[in-house]
TrEMBL record:
Compartments reported by the entry: Secreted
Primary localisation category: secreted
The UniProt record lists the keyword Isomerase: no
Source organism per UniProt: Anopheles atroparvus (European mosquito)
Source lineage: Eukaryota, Metazoa, Ecdysozoa, Arthropoda, Hexapoda
InterPro entries given in the database record: 6-blade_b-propeller_TolB-like (IPR011042), MRJP/yellow-related (IPR017996)
Name of the protein in its database record: Uncharacterized protein
Length: 330
């Protein structure tokens, strides 16, 4: 009799765990992998890899009861089958300080990559769209991150990273134009092979990582915020700034994240671990601390309010919990 009670309790616990995960079956999505998550209060904008959808809105935290979900991308909308309107092949998102959702879309069939900006507070105000030029369309875009601090002229700017390139792109919302942050040695010798595809930014720091050689660089973020984009009719301006090489990370990094004390967290996919490093120290292993280690599918680190943090996994963190997010202590 006692063994039956134990079995019933165990079954109930498992069912509760299943019911509290992101369940997208209500919008026709059964199997998916999480690529990226952006948050706005209790709203989660989840970029996913699935058969026919790349962006959904659902609830946050993941374990909230009675979640409602919406498909935001337009892969299933037949109205846009022969046009490049709507959202397809979403690569990532970010939410700026004025509650605008920035959406980076990759190429899709004959459609070029584009950047779409929508207001979360006033959805009826329309959206801003930037389509990349033909040479840029052949590039492999990776991530987007909006500077949380406005530029000196009040502009809102976003950094875009690419795979296998020695520069970053920076988009000016005020000017509706794109700039390039080119990395060069002082002797002008090439930096290749290089892939400046990982980036993190907060109020005080901007770090960029090379995912080919695991090098970490610091950029002068205050100087970049003083940079004025060209006036109308001016094709190009050039500004030189020193980029500081800090050393090599412990392995190929993913999801660089600055915590509330300007300490750097990043994922080591090879080890399924999240590690933490304090700026000012060397990047040796003894100056790192392992924050979390469990999953080989870790894709992101989310910082919430009151010092809360979560590790995000592309697949379930464990089959027992059937959740993509696990709370961690940083």
């Amino acid at each position: 009799m006692e063994s039956r009670v134990v079995q019933v309790l165990a079954s109930c616990a498992l069912l509760l765990g299943c019911g509290h995960a992101w369940d997208l079956r209500s919008v026709g999505i059964d199997q998916f992998r999480v690529r990226h998550v952006s948050l706005y209060h209790s709203r989660a904008f989840v970029t996913i890899e699935s058969a026919n959808v790349s962006l959904v809105e659902t609830g946050w935290p993941e374990n909230v009861n009675n979640q409602r979900s919406w498909v935001l991308s337009d892969e299933l909308d037949r109205r846009w089958t022969c046009s490049c309107r709507g959202l397809r092949n979403v690569l990532g998102t970010d939410v700026d300080r004025l509650a605008r959702l920035w959406i980076l879309s990759g190429p899709e069939r004959h459609c070029r990559p584009k950047l779409t900006i929508r207001s979360l507070l006033s959805p009826t105000t329309g959206e801003i769209e930037h389509r990349f030029r033909r040479p840029e369309s052949e590039l492999r875009f990776h991530t987007i991150m909006v500077d949380p601090v406005p530029a000196s002229d009040g502009d809102t700017r976003a950094f875009l990273t690419l795979l296998d390139q020695d520069y970053l792109l920076i988009y000016s919302l005020f000017k509706r134009s794109m700039g390039k942050l080119q990395f060069e040695r002082t002797d002008l010798t090439p930096l290749h092979p290089i892939s400046l595809s990982e980036l993190t930014i907060n109020h005080n720091r901007l770090y960029v990582a090379d995912t080919v050689s695991d090098r970490l660089f610091a950029l002068p973020i205050r100087s970049l915020r003083q940079l004025a984009f060209p006036h109308d009719g001016v094709q190009k301006i050039v500004m030189q700034a020193n980029v500081t090489y800090l050393g090599r990370l412990l392995g190929r990094p993913r999801a660089l994240t600055l915590d509330f004390h300007d300490q750097l967290l990043y994922i080591l996919p090879r080890d399924g671990a999240i590690v933490k490093w304090t700026p000012g120290r060397s990047l040796k292993a003894e100056n790192h601390r392992v924050i979390y280690q469990q999953s080989t599918n870790l894709t992101q680190i989310i910082l919430g309010v009151a010092g809360n943090a979560w590790a995000v996994s592309a697949e379930y963190v464990s089959n027992e919990t059937r959740r993509h997010c696990v709370k961690i202590t940083v």
